[in-house]
Design a protein that fits this description.
Its main location: cytoplasm. The chain is mainly α. It is built from eight helices and eight strands. The strands form three sheets. A three-stranded antiparallel β-sheet has the order 3-4-5. The chain has a three-stranded antiparallel β-sheet with strand order 7-6-8. A two-stranded antiparallel ribbon has the order 1-2.
């Protein structure tokens, strides 16, 4: 079980263990012919061994001394250098058999690499392919950077392992985006219903106001227009607020959908190295976009227009000063006093 994540770790299959044994400690890929065997019985790709021997690194000493990158055993090479080392034909034959099994599809999935896949090259070491992933720095790199470059003290892993992990994480982020989009769509629907309710309540209050003021038409006609204007103004202000929220939710929804498409295309169309260059950024953007905790909403009762209720019990002398809510508090106090007296 993984102590950090708490998840059960699947035991490697025999073929996966074999693939690990057939991997070069320098490039972390399966041995490339010809395979050379050192006196310490450790194997290397001859190309990797030659690059390590010829390059300026801590293991290249004068006098033809070569140090094994696995156990640090020192080997004295003759004038032929790495090319004078004995080939390990047994390992080469095992690799041939292993690859034949892969082609038949009996064990593992085909390797990630493809002839059509564009391979990224190291910017520091010319001609070196990016073929490993630095877990410490969270970036793809090459074998030479690990052996004697800026990543020599870092922990590394294969591109395939990190690719599978980050692809799974990005898929989970896409699922989170889908759930977030559903939430956004529900909020847009709710805001549209709120806008409709505001308009309906405003229309209802206008109708009630018109019915009451028509009884006092001669005196209240001018005031009627002023009060209607107040209701309309607040209606317009509230509708503007709600429509603005609807637009924000729609924009966030469209941005989220576009991010989902971009993430899906990255998984489908990118090479492994290209995917790993952009995957962390996409994962962070997807997780940030999936959070709905900062969504703004109208305060409770925002759609209510009941405060425009008009009382018609006022005397005619008060008509010139009539306004919304005037006399409403007094009437409520009177009703409360009457209820207390009845009790």
């Amino acid at each position: 079980m993984d102590i950090q994540t708490g998840q059960r770790v699947r035991a490697p299959s025999p073929m996966e263990s074999l693939e690990k044994q057939l991997s070069c400690p320098i490039c972390l890929d399966m041995f490339t012919k010809p395979v050379v065997i050192l006196p310490c019985q450790h194997n290397l790709c001859r190309g990797c061994a030659n690059d390590l021997y010829d390059s300026k690194n801590p293991y290249h000493y004068s006098g033809g001394i070569f140090r094994c990158p696995t156990c640090r055993f020192e080997v004295v090479l003759d004038r032929h250098g790495v090319y004078g080392l004995q080939r390990n034909l047994l390992v080469e034959n095992i690799i041939d058999i292993y690859k034949q099994q892969l082609e038949k599809g009996n064990t593992l999935e085909p390797p990630l690499k493809s002839k059509e896949t564009k391979e990224l090259m190291c910017e520091v070491h010319e001609g070196e392919k990016i073929n490993i992933y630095c877990m410490t720095c969270q970036t793809p790199t090459c074998s030479m950077c690990k052996v004697f470059g800026q990543h020599k003290d870092c922990e590394v892993s294969t591109l395939k392992t990190v690719y599978e992990a980050q692809k799974s994480e990005l898929k989970n982020s896409i699922d989170l985006l889908g759930a977030s989009n559903s939430c956004l769509q529900a909020m847009v629907t709710q805001m549209e219903e709120t806008s409709k309710t505001v308009e309906e309540n405003s229309q209802l209050q206008k109708q009630r106001l018109g019915e009451k003021l028509d009884l006092l038409y001669a005196i209240l006609e001018e005031r009627k227009g002023q009060l209607l204007e107040q209701i309309t103004q607040e209606q317009d202000e509230k509708v503007v607020v709600v429509r603005s929220l609807i637009q924000q939710y729609n924009e966030q929804l469209q941005a989220s959908i576009k991010l989902m498409d971009k993430a899906s295309q990255t998984i489908a169309n990118s090479s492994v190295a290209e995917f790993l260059v952009t995957a962390k950024k996409l994962i962070t953007e997807a997780k940030d976009a999936s959070k709905c905790s900062n969504l703004q909403r109208p305060e409770p009762g925002f759609e209510s227009m009941d405060h425009f209720t008009l009382s018609t019990d006022d005397v005619e002398a008060m008509l010139a000063k009539m306004d919304f809510g005037v006399g409403g508090d007094d009437d409520d106090d009177d009703e409360e006093e009457e209820e207390e007296e009845e009790e």
